[in-house]
């Protein structure tokens, strides 16, 4: 009887495979596609971690790419970036918590995700999150920050904010989806930490649009360039890690590496870590270190998804400024990849880096959008809001003379920015708002796309006083309300309406 059942099961399996192939759906390809979403669901259930939060953490670290078990620059492995270095032993902790071998955690996606969930849950337990608290993704903020193992409260906030930004903007990659959602991130003591995303936090001594976070003095050499050496090169790097993780690594005395600047993928934010006059250890060649400025770009060389237009434009503006300041040729002689340094063992920026686009932006032959418009809340005839929206000049981070604010309510009552879109196509939408601890933790921005309204949630408590991209959208031609911000949100704090910028790509 058992043998008969086995044969019947085998026959049924064979018939199913034949039917799937005949229908144009290869059976084994479906088996290969399923594991990543299933792994997140399994790990989240096993360790009582919110599934979407687990995905957002992995996305902020690796864009859900395990990189074939190869380590990041700081020694992190797999989709969940389980780190093993002198100051962070998350990989070993995951092995202890799950009973899995470290080699398996490095190379197997399902094991790695399970290990990441276990480590995150351990941080939550240490912080005292009970069963009820674990149901609210916002309550996990300190645990997420602890997972990043950064070197300071400001970097812990930067790291955790990137994860929660993924929840607000939504994620759709490698077969895994997270819909944009309202989450009130409860920062706790980290709410007092300096917000490195905000314009008010900028303190770069050499490039004002950048924030300043000093690298460990063990990771660079103090110098007096351009007296001691002429600066005649810009070297382009890829971090092989996340933005916050790279900044933290350069602050780690055991790293023995650094770069002058680090650029963020999603919005092009820049942090300076070594003064231009000093010698950063980035090129692997002392002569080139002495004569060059190193710029690191968040991401991994084998994954093109990190190299966004916002990153290219922001980095190109920095490179252009450096070339103007130090007389560096705006050519591929003066601007080189790490792989072009004599004796280089690194391959970055790699084949996915678009040198044509980048150099066009550096030289100005494409550095600006083909069309752009900025609409402020004070722009005549292009901003509408009900009488429920007040007017304020409280924050110096505002765009224009003032901005609008409103209490949350269980009704949309949106403020709208209108624009005349010149032609149907893809447009980048950026928003500007002043940030404050009393402003909304999950403000719903509405974009009227050609396929219907899309909503993106933005935490207006941080990242203010600067243009912040909320995505690229297909828009119809014509004059209409294009971007709105609604009062209908479960987020806490006043909803702010200040300005938007729409650019044709």
Automatic annotation (TrEMBL):
InterPro entries: Amidase/PGRP_sf (IPR036505), Amidase_domain (IPR002502), CBD-like_Golvesin-Xly (IPR033803), Lysozyme-like_dom_sf (IPR023346), NAMLAA_amidase_2 (IPR051206)
Limits of the N-acetylmuramoyl-L-alanine amidase domain: 219-350
Coiled coil: none
Gene3D superfamilies linked: 1.10.530.10, Peptidoglycan recognition protein-like
Enzyme Commission number: 3.5.1.28
Reactions it catalyzes: Hydrolyzes the link between N-acetylmuramoyl residues and L-amino acid residues in certain cell-wall glycopeptides
Keywords, sorted A to Z: Cell wall biogenesis/degradation, Hydrolase
MF GO annotations: N-acetylmuramoyl-L-alanine amidase activity
Major enzyme class: hydrolase
Entry keyword annotation includes Plastid: no
Listed name of the protein: N-acetylmuramoyl-L-alanine amidase
Species of the source: Nonomuraea insulae
Lineage: Bacteria, Bacillati, Actinomycetota, Actinomycetes, Streptosporangiales
